[in-house]
Amino acid sequence: MLHSAPSSSFHHTTTLHPSPSPSLLSASSPSSSRHAWLPLRHFSFQTPPLRTHNHFALTSPKALKVNCSTSEPLKIMISGAPASGKGTQCELIVQKFGLVHISTGDLLRAEVAAGTEIGNKAKEFMNSGRLVPDEIVTAMVAARLSREDAKQRGWLLDGYPRTSSQAESLEKMQIRPDLYIVLDVPDEILIDRCVGRRLDPVTGKIYHLKFFPPESEEIKARLVTRPDDTEEKVKSRLEIYKQNAEAASSSYSNITKKIDGSRSKEEVFKEVESSLSQLQQSKGKILKSGGTEIQRTLDNLLTSFCSEKSILDTKKGSGSSSQDKWRGIPTRLNNIPHSREIRQYFYDDVIKATQRAVDDGKTRLKVDINIPELNPEMDVYRIGTLMELVRGLALSFADDGKRVKVCVQGSMGEGALAGMPLQLAGSRQILEFMDWGDYGAKGTFINIGSIGAAEVEEQDDLYILVAPQNAVGNCIIDDLRAMTNAAEHRPVILINARLKDLPGSSGIMQTMGRDQRLKYAASFESCYFFRLLYYAGTQYPIMGAIRMSYPYRYELYKRVDDPSGKEKYVILSTFLERPTTDEINDAFEGKPRNETRKGSGIWGFLSGIF
Ligand code: AP5
């Protein structure tokens, strides 16, 4: 039985309370008016002060935490090239869904119109079609998002993030959307749209001389053209967009909905509306049932929205990053060593799932990630990858102000019976030598220890156990149990544990108490699972993969080669529990779920999977 951490002892919520400047308050009224140019007086630009309820807060500046509870209203990001129709769609979304529209372009234009210090700084960048420096824009967005209306009604973030560093800022502040919409429009259309665009300074409405002419001569007479809407400036804005789009959007590849924005605005909105309505419905169900099951519904929905799991492909195949080569799950996983991007994909995936589980009060967790790069039996350098994963995970909790103990078991037994767990020799030393960041986290928020009750100290908040496993003749489970008993309600996370069998020193299976031990080992709940699938007895080619990221369902993927020869993973099915071999066989054979199965299918996957 899992225990829930009492909120007072573990659930720290770090909240940023910026003091929005008067100009921001007036510039970003929750109305749908995207281009409303309201008069502004002054702007105080400062890093918003931090208030934290966490007595273990780091001394480094901490981030705004917007809790992603399932009962929150919609949180949407919309992105696309200049004039792809973001503002036009935002007007319609706000009318229908009542979200708070936050457009960085509008916020900045309002500053410029008011002649504030910020506006004067931003003006020269905007007029020449360049991006305004990140720190200015990020402070504005953080201030606006922290306001009550955005929390209550949900938000629609337009034009932010536009660079990888803006995306990172959001990640640090733990601000994530439910859905990331990308409007995809060819360049030639974009230029036409920009050059013909006109704005009504009274209503904030967007017109186009050809596509959406003003309703009356009176309105026509007062329309204005944006200073950055000349053909030359549009081309330069487009270029800047292309340089940054991929990096800015890559964090959202799993929740990206790419929409063809070259169609009429009504057609585009129909698709946007349908996605948002479904999302809203799912969130409504979450509210009613208040449970994980509906999170899964939401996940399924996102899976179906984003079946392409697309990342922005603005360079149409000419990208420089290896991420261009995969969508969703990285490909070529048999090619090792893996690139930095592939490793990062898995680290991020594990970190997010584990964070969600801990935030939900889970305290006995395990991560199982089995890709060639993380299998130290094949090559000892791969223990380094495991350590990198553990470091990322530990620092992600330390960043939240938690004191993390990273534990590696040492040699077990004595004398001739001493045994070292496979590949763990020296890994504690590696952990000691690793770079634990700039804030002196090691020794304060990160401590290195071993496995056992004696390691549990009062100040610890959470334990990460690196590959705990039985050594010849010795069973780690007893130490583990003593440790978890001492840890009580504090989370203990096992990374790639190997607790299945208990070989005796003579090689004979030790059976005393085995059932109880295995039962205990099984009491850890999976918060992340990833495994590649092969034909039985082979490690080539990869046939598919199973992935589970808490609190979502197990996803079964098939690896396919598309006609251009590129490989990709296509989702076949999802499961509440880890699928059995039969279920996998059936899914690969395209059989319906409940059909009577043969004793063994044509797909005999590695028995090690289960
Ligand atoms: P911003 O105002 O955000 O400009 P943008 O991203 O270039 O986008 P646009 O506002 O030009 O176009 P849109 O996609 O909203 O299209 P719209 O709906 O108006 O940013 C301006 C500047 O601020 C930036 O260049 C930068 O300097 C700075 N900035 C902003 N955010 C920043 C950030 N995060 N970091 C740094 N700097 C930042 O439509 C365009 C036209 O097409 C209209 O006339 C419309 O009527 C028409 N139209 C729309 N949809 C259709 C359709 N389906 N069919 C036909 N016509 C259509």
Automatic annotation (TrEMBL):
Family the entry assigns: Belongs to the adenylate kinase family.
Top-level taxon: Eukaryota
Protein name in the entry: adenylate kinase
Residue span of region Disordered: 1-28, 313-332
The protein's Enzyme Commission number: 2.7.4.3
HAMAP family: Adenylate_kinase_Adk (MF_00235)
Keywords: ATP-binding, Chloroplast, Kinase, Nucleotide-binding, Plastid, Transferase
